Amino acid sequence: MKKLYLKDVARELNVSKTAVSLVLNGKGDENKISYDTQQKIINFAKKHNYIPNQLARGLSRGKSETIGLIIPNISDTFYSKVAGVIERKAKEKGYTVLFSSSYEDPKTEGELILSMLNRQVDGLIIASTQQNKKEIEFLKKEKFPFVLFDRYYPENETDYVIVDNFYGTKKVTEHLLNLGRKKVGFITLKPGLEPIAQRLMGYKEALKAHNLTSKETYVKEIGREEYFSEVEKAIIDLTAREQAVDAIVFSTHYLASQGLRVLKKLNLKVPDDVAIVSFDELSAFDIVEPPVTSVVQPVNEIGYSVIEILLNKIGSTVKTEFQTRVLKTKLEIRSSCGSFLST
Amino acid sequence: MKKLYLKDVARELNVSKTAVSLVLNGKGDENKISYDTQQKIINFAKKHNYIPNQLARGLSRGKSETIGLIIPNISDTFYSKVAGVIERKAKEKGYTVLFSSSYEDPKTEGELILSMLNRQVDGLIIASTQQNKKEIEFLKKEKFPFVLFDRYYPENETDYVIVDNFYGTKKVTEHLLNLGRKKVGFITLKPGLEPIAQRLMGYKEALKAHNLTSKETYVKEIGREEYFSEVEKAIIDLTAREQAVDAIVFSTHYLASQGLRVLKKLNLKVPDDVAIVSFDELSAFDIVEPPVTSVVQPVNEIGYSVIEILLNKIGSTVKTEFQTRVLKTKLEIRSSCGSFLST
DNA sequence: CTGAAAGCGCTTACAG
DNA sequence: CTGAAAGCGCTTACAG
């Protein structure tokens, strides 16, 4: 069985290439091709496994039916979940997705954007490092369809989908304060990312609303690469001083799980010695010890929104308003905060 | 800034399209194009963001520099980790990866294979549903480069990378028996998948080696879709009868985490009432309560091997032997089995 | 319905 | 080095 081309099936069937192409693209009826001929073509194609070359098709039609997805890390549970939703929705609409991880490196991300572009993706979805303003502006100038999620560029108008990082963190911090915790630490990443900045602000706002000033020393900003050891240092620092904290907010799931590891190692009891909460969660957060109260991101909604906005963009030639969505998070209360503390 | 094409940069620079193409593809030297001209072309291209159309390039050269990855579910932690490794390695070699989840549906998987093929991927990586023998044979007949991982077709000779499911399960079951457990249950998926079958055999072999016959009633095979409720039923069944089990082996990570959830709900103490172990793990298995002894799969090695074999296949025109690798698992002992039990 | 033809944007011998 | 040309495998007006 040799590889079949359009011309082969045309020849075999004694019809024109035009007819075959038209029929296989569902344009048989509108071109008044007889039912019999259509059936003949369709059956032959199916029987002999005729596979049209998408490269040629894409080149000819000027679109590839492919979407590019650029995320920090496909192995991270949050991104892999969103990727799953995006892929499922995209497939429903006939798109395949090309993905690539930037590993938080702006240079890699920039190259990825260009690489996706030269592969003629029809649209781009990016959870950006937020350090490629130039590329983002290039995309805008070219009117290339793209939507950002998770991380966006506050100073550049674009389509994006994010969650309410500020309010989510404020709420979970208040939850802690309402339970009688007075000295709340915040372990987070070094600044640079918008969601992280928003979470810090939410934390501070909650303290302020409770008439507590957020001591600088309660906020620990650590580097992503060496977070394993730095979380440990941060916790030792927060818990060992004379004025030890009685609660810690972790700004993301892997900091929280490492935090839990460290707390166990240090023999600190959660929530008795210190209560903890996490922004974003691991699916196992309900079976860790103790189960961790978390701010849950609406993964499905994020994926749906992103695809919806992007496909709208791709479909329409008229320039539309930028669409931005800020989705609500959900506070999942578990036992890592204990019950009310009277001191 | 309009979109630039090859002919545009040729015109602007007063050189031929040929020269531009040659230089940009790194064939300047071998075609004796002067250093100055080369620099001129390269600089202009970079400055004006010339992005060659990969569709045209691929069509012309007969390869797309794209690899297709078909897995059951990108959101599953095991597959997302392997996908990350594969993507990283592929990128190093200049390949981008197109991915798609089959969600365990053979029909979807079959369509995906054809879809990837018509997108002219240069090779395919599949963790198969094992129900598309026809497509696999088609790929073989076409001499299309592909390698299977995790799940393969025992009756069809292909390249594949798997782990030692049999021995891994045997070892972890023996670990349980060596600790004095006598009645070991096995909660697994309904048959159909080779790794699952191997794990069951490993479990039985361990029992046999300890002169225990594996009672049929100790093995619970459940459906993937409704595993949440079925794990519960299985555990109730295994623990409530007069001869309750004193240990349970879970054949995969999500069964184990659901098992832990259920055991907590039923107020059964792990490992006192029942010890548990898991084949494959969640990254949080060291902080759940109790930490779960697991058979760890060598995710990096799997990814590396798959890419290595595939790229070899793509690179060589001579037909080579099928390459198969069976990688070792690692037993990670945690406290979910307790210490030696004397009864 | 057909058939010849142009076009998508590249790459790559080939003659000079 | 150039330049004209063929070719990759499709799609799509167009004249008949």
Structure explained in plain terms:
The structure is a homodimer of 343-residue chains. By secondary structure, chain A is an alpha/beta fold. The first copy, chain A, folds into three domains: 6-52, 434 Repressor (Amino-terminal Domain); 61-158, Rossmann fold (3-Layer(aba) Sandwich), CATH 3.40.50; 165-297 and 331-337, Rossmann fold (3-Layer(aba) Sandwich). Helices cover 43% and strands 16% of the residues of chain A. Chain A is built from twelve helices and twelve strands. Chain A has helices at residues 6-13, 17-24, 35-47, 54-61, 77-92, 106-118, 133-141, 165-178, 194-209, 227-240, 253-265, 299-315; strands at residues 66-71, 96-101, 123-126, 146-149, 160-163, 184-189, 219-222, 247-250, 275-279, 293-296, 324-327, 330-332. In chain A, the strands form two sheets. The first copy, chain A, has a six-stranded parallel β-sheet with strand order 2-1-3-4-5-11, with helices on both faces. Chain A has a six-stranded mixed β-sheet with strand order 7-6-8-9-10-12, with helices on both faces. In chain A, helix 5 (77-92) crosses helix 12 (299-315). Chain A starts with 5 loop residues before the first helix and ends in an 11-residue tail after the last strand. In chain A, 46% of the residues are buried. The model of chain A has no long low-confidence stretch (mean pLDDT 93).
